[in-house]
Amino acid sequence: MARGHHDIGGLPGAGKIDQTEHELSDWEILADAVNQALGANGIKRTDEMRRAREEMDSAAYRDMTYYERWIASIESILIEKKILTKEEIDRKLAEFESKWGEP
Amino acid sequence: MGRAVKLPASKFKAGDRVRVKFEDRPGHIRTPWYIRGKTGWIERVHGDFLNPESLAFGGDGLPKRTLYLVAFNQSDVWGKAVGSKDKVLVDIYEHWLSPAV
Amino acid sequence: MSEGHDTDQDHGHQHPKHELSYYAKRIYAIRDLLLEKGVITDKDIQCQVEYQEARSPANGAKLVARAWIDPAFKARLIGDPKPACAEMGIDATSINEFVVLENTEKVRHMVVCTLCSCYPRPILGRPPDWYKSFNYRQRAVNDPRGVMREFGLGLSDDVAVRIHDSTADIRYLVLPLRPKGTEGLSETQLAKLVTRDSMIGVMDALPALPPS
After folding, report:
1. What was the ipTM of the complex prediction?
2. Which of A1, A10, A46 has the CB atom closest to B26's CB atom?
3. Mean pLDDT of C183-210
4. 8 A C-beta contact, residue C106 and residue C160
């Protein structure tokens, strides 16, 4: 077993803290709200979401933004609980892309 | 710092010296790596809470575990004179703590 | 590497654009499917958006300003924070356990969640990006004084720093020290000195403005 990629208190090599802040994009606000709504409805527990982020690929954990990690863990838990499947999310995404005219 | 819960069943009380177990096991663990194996003291008995290690895998989190605020001298944790009066305080579940002398 | 950056702007990071918009699109797909299946409703989502919008550091500033001028309220806030919040019209009921950490001349507190980003959201709203950053999560526990210096707070050795790692269900709010020379200020004026960052503990409250 190794120290989890999330378990970073005291690790060396951290630099200056970037104090710039950003306005949340609509998709980030939505990710936040969907996460909270799933919790309020008893669909998932906060610790399940944390565990999903701990189980994520370590490089992805470092590279993804905060809300991207939330979305990845929301998806992972919903699939684990058999509420959604990856295929239907992919299909819905393909529908959006054709509707939105993505290149 | 405010009311502490008096639980007759809790193993430790404020002032007790404790050592954080050094375990390296899989699962969803809320005891940070940097504090494992370190010795400190109980600052506050927070009360009983559902066990996150069980909740993380769809369990019901029962039986509840007593959660403690455990204080450590920074110099003991990081092995150097990091501000002689400074402390690091971590919320740790009872099953991660052993009595220390 | 900073995180939480706005994916619609080019910050010169190495992320290919399609990787960012993949997740942005994905949450919309997930949302639509959840609505279709009745797992959550539009109202559920809207409720959460509104709940979050109603929460901001202004809530915490109100509590602190009241605590500064009313010693009995301060005692209630420290002794049993949730009912004290309710007195001020602040709903802290969704916090499992809430602890208020009082700063003094000789003691400063600072709060981090090294394992993720636990934060007293029902009081202060969403945490700032820097609180959730890897650099803060790594350095807060072994270099709190260095972090405080970056935020403009230099402390002498006779002040003790207590860094709290909120690893469980406890949510912490720092009650910053009342700045000197503020005896004549109203509660509203005092609240303006209480910054979000002073309630996380990386800095003190703002000093009183000099008389003009």
Report:
1. 0.94
2. A1
3. 95
4. yes
